[in-house]
Amino acid sequence: MVEPKFPHPTWLLDDDGASMRAFGPLMARNGLGGFVYSMAHGWGPKPLENLQSFAGTNGDGTLLYPAEIVGGVGPMPSIRLMLLRDAMEDVELKRTVGTWPAMSLDGFAGTLSNDTAGHVPTNAATLIKREGVPDTRVSWRIDAKRQNLIVNFRASKPQSGDYVAVELAPSDIEKRPEKWRFVATRKGNRAVEKRTREGHFRFEAGAFRTTVKDQGDFYSVEMTIPLAVLEGATKFRFDALRRTSVNGAKITIYAHSRTGDPYAMPVIDLQAKRG
Is the confidence at residue 124, as pLDDT, over 70? Predict the structure, then answer.
């Protein structure tokens, strides 16, 4: 129904497509053979303008659209329904190969952890890579006064509509369910977004700064992200991603969490001693 909400993966319009896709690994890892969804066609009189449910969520109970509103006939699948198909294919892939790829933290030189351990970050580079997707390298550091997180991307084979982003979340996300996303496009545009249980919000970029250099066969981005958004927290979760196109399809690749799951994001500890 209308639960759970962020930071758990949902089928709502407020969440990333990766949230829908995450159900494949969740089902496969936990041996789930199916699921129940209450209604797939719960649209109102203006389904392209308003898909809010009785509980105030967006897209709950709506996986199909009436194709007549765009000149077609019969049911029209939503992008979320097509992503659910991909998630089911992921389950079949797991059954075929037997295991899921392990999450790798190579290149971070012990600066990240999936629990509460960690060190002050260094500037080691990590390769964000998936078969068939152009390579992206990302490195990061904390400035001397520990006021900003500075992240550098180098993205090869840039495509139209490319962007890179950094996601931050509290280390105690079970108590503070929120996630920040800092976005920089290849064209130099930037945006700051926040996701909570109440929805998806966009903020003025403010102190968030970016520098973009387009070199033709690659583009580089430097982000300066104010840690003030974390309200003084000395531990926080971190991930980096690239959104690009492959054969006309939009692809999102993460450095660590694979699907953007904040619980799978490694933790940075600003108080840990240098290794």
Answer: no
